[in-house]
Amino acid sequence: MTLNRRIIGAANDTGYLVEKLYASQRERLEIMPPSVSLERDFSKPEFLTKAWGRKIESLVPDRWSYIPKMPGYFTEMRFKSFGLPNTTKLGWEEFFWGNLPWGVHMRRYNKSNRDVNAETVLLNDLLGR
User: Fold this and answer.
1) Measured between alpha carbons, how far is residue 9 from residues 4, 63, 86, 97, 126 in Å?
2) CB within 10 Å: which end of the chain, N or C, has fewer?
3) Contact 77/99 with Cβ under 8 angstroms?
4) What is the SS3 string spanning the chain?
5) What is the C-alpha separation between 49 and 68, in angstroms, rounded?
6) What pLDDT digit, counting tens, does each position of 3-39 carry?
7) Are 84 and 126 in contact (CB under 8 A)?
8) pTM of the predicted protein model
């Protein structure tokens, strides 16, 4: 339950590097909250799927928590609830701004069975073409 907590916030991905660059700045920053399904996106480690695991997680300081505690850090809204295509079916991440759908991240890593035609159709549908 604690083994991988040391790598939380240390992915060295773009988000991590942006935070590292601007964390000490005085400017007020806002994020575009990603759409998250607690059941789907936080099913690993497995203890997070259990009631006792979620309770323990709620007691862990945010720095070591798998599930961010800051209000507004993520939303459980989905594009499909706004009548837009379900982009998560292809593994895309949905982002919101002011509680409205704003953008997607098409996530290209880990897609050995990528269907470029399906992605093109979905993107055109999303853009209204």
Assistant:
1) 11, 8, 28, 23, 31
2) C
3) yes
4) CCCCHHHCCCCCCHHHHHHHHHCCCCCCCCCCCEECCHHHHCCCCHHHHCHHHHHHHHHCCHHHCCCCCCCCCCECCCHHHHCCCCHHHHCCEEEEECCEEEEEECCCCCCCCCCHHHHHHHHHHHCCC
5) 16
6) 565 666 656 667 677 777 877 777 776 778 889 887 7
7) yes
8) 0.71
Structure tokens belonging to residue 117: 């035609």
Return the pLDDT at 7.
Answer: 60
What pLDDT is recorded for position 36? 85
In angstroms, the CA 87 to CA 91 distance is 7
As given in the structure block, the two tokens for residue 12 are 């060295």
